[in-house]
């Protein structure tokens, strides 16, 4: 069984662990119907369209 040759320092260990919790900003794309920014693969909140089909009735 493999055994580490040297102890991993606290600084090296913490540097490795620190990158896990960082979050990316959510990706946004323009709605082809109304031009508003929306999350990809989701129904547009402002017009109610998804892939060119009206899924939710929104009153204008």
Automatic annotation (TrEMBL):
- What protein family is recorded? Belongs to the bacterial ribosomal protein bL32 family.
Q: List the Pfam families.
A: Ribosomal_L32p
UniProt entry keywords in alphabetical sequence: Ribonucleoprotein, Ribosomal protein
Protein name, please?
A: Large ribosomal subunit protein bL32
Source organism superkingdom:
Bacteria
Which InterPro entries does the annotation name?
Answer: Ribosomal_bL32, Ribosomal_bL32_bact, Ribosomal_zn-bd
* GO CC entries: large ribosomal subunit
Give the organism, scientific name.
Massiliimalia timonensis
GO MF term (any one) = structural constituent of ribosome
GO BP term (any one): translation
């Amino acid at each position: 069984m493999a055994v580490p040759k040297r102890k991993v320092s606290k600084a090296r260990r913490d540097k490795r662990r620190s990158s896990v919790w960082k979050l990316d900003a959510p990706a946004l794309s323009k709605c082809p119907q109304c031009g508003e920014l929306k999350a990809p693969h989701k129904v547009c909140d402002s017009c109610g369209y998804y892939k060119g089909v009206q899924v939710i009735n929104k009153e204008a």
